[in-house]
Amino acid sequence: MTENLPAPLAEIRDEFLALEVRERLQLLLEYSNELPELPERYRDHPDLFERVLECQSPVFLFVEVDEHGVHLYATAPAEAPTTRGFASILAQGIDGLSPDEVLAIPGDYPQSLGLAAAVSPLRVRGMTGMLARAQRQLGERLAAAG
Amino acid sequence: MPAELDPAEKFAAYANPHRLVSTEWLAAHLEDPAVRIVESDEDVLLYETGHIPGSVKIDWHTDLNDPVVRDYVDGEGFAKLLSSKGIARDDTIVIYGDKNNWWAAYALWVFTLFGHEDVRLLDGGRDLWIAEGRELTTEATVVEPVEYPVVERDDAPIRAYKEDVLAAIGTEPLIDVRSPEEYTGERTHMPAYPEESALRGGHIPTAASVPWARAAAPDATFKSRDELDAIYRDEAGLGEADRVIAYCRIGERSSHTWFVLTHLLGYPNVRNYDGSWTEWGSSVRVPIVTGAEPGSL
């Protein structure tokens, strides 16, 4: 069920699926290295961030909506490159989408990347948790904004 | 030909000193043709971010577990894996990893199921190696595949199944190595590991609680023989037990305790119950105790 998939997320998926399983790990590592630093204004605000309990490593995320669309910020330690990679895929794939587009991302998007064989289905579930929490946070922000 | 032993004084006090090497020893044996270095971590990408020169990666999910049945790979799968990693049957294997060698100990235990003779842990693991500023590389290790014989797993001596544990309650000491919250039943999973859960919380009747990481010092090395004796022999009451079963949630943390009891303290028949709480806590009609007391059957 990926017909609602926004273009950036579809491109990321296709990029993974075009590779051999082994190379997909390398691509995930590249995403991991690209996880953006937090913008200055959020660095001293750990209170804004929500812990993603589905991930084995400490990862925190925060959703913001402004006139350019939705932005997802995440932090995860360098010792948790897989988790950083998952966060980076979502942060890059979601950035600038409209709130409706983000809410419509299918919950099984993480399973569509062909990573189960490379990192195991159990680990992929960490990314599913991240997406679900990002969507829930977004819904709450929209509701609060009325 | 196995590699020479690490003569470190600390190791001499352990039951099987040859099961550990120090970071110093490993640094001096990076080029030793008898030594194969294996990294095994919780995070499947950590090795790629930088690893000990010449080491190969073995992942517990994707390499050691059977992809379909909840079991380990078979003799053929293990031979194929080690062959592809350039490891021969008579090589000395040194395993290291993150988080106090948690997953490294798990890999060592699985290697032991296949009777690989000379397999050792790097005392302090990945964290100590890095803390000491020793060399890491992102350069891919080039491996020549070698012949590794097909040896069928021998589970019985070191692996306990659920039925074995049921029969052991009341006759054989059990050690629960999970967190105190998991032991009492307050949680059905480890903090931050909700995916590996069970339907009921608590512990197996009679099991003593000794969280696995108590065996590690702050620098990720194993505690000294005296400290470990005080924890397991005295406090947990193992005394001179001739049989012990350790369990956790899926058998990884208890592999670490299995290593401590077997190789550092010399207990003769220690089995790891890898089904652990994810099996026991979801099984129908097995006895469970909640709260801080071990309880009885």
Automatic annotation (TrEMBL), chain A:
Pfam family of the protein (one): SufE
Organism: Agromyces seonyuensis
Stated name of the protein: Cysteine desulfuration protein SufE
Domain Fe-S metabolism associated: 16-136
Domain of life: Bacteria
Signal peptide: none
Gene3D superfamilies to which the protein is assigned, alphabetical: 3.90.1010.10
Record-stated family: Belongs to the SufE family.
UniProtKB/TrEMBL annotation, chain B:
Any one GO molecular-function label of the UniProt entry: thiosulfate-cyanide sulfurtransferase activity
Boundaries of every Rhodanese domain copy: 31-138, 168-289
Pfam families according to UniProt: Rhodanese (PF00581)
PROSITE patterns hit by this protein: RHODANESE_2, RHODANESE_3
Reactions mediated catalytically: thiosulfate + hydrogen cyanide = thiocyanate + sulfite + 2 H(+)
Gene3D superfamilies in the record: Rhodanese-like domain (3.40.250.10)
CDD domains per the UniProt record, alphabetical: TST_Repeat_1, TST_Repeat_2
InterPro entries to which the protein is assigned, alphabetical: Rhodanese-like_dom (IPR001763), Rhodanese-like_dom_sf (IPR036873), Thiosulfate_sulfurtransferase (IPR051126), Thiosulphate_STrfase_CS (IPR001307)
Keywords: Repeat, Transferase
Keyword Transferase among UniProt keywords: yes
Protein name, as recorded: Sulfurtransferase
Organism classification: Bacteria, Bacillati, Actinomycetota, Actinomycetes, Micrococcales
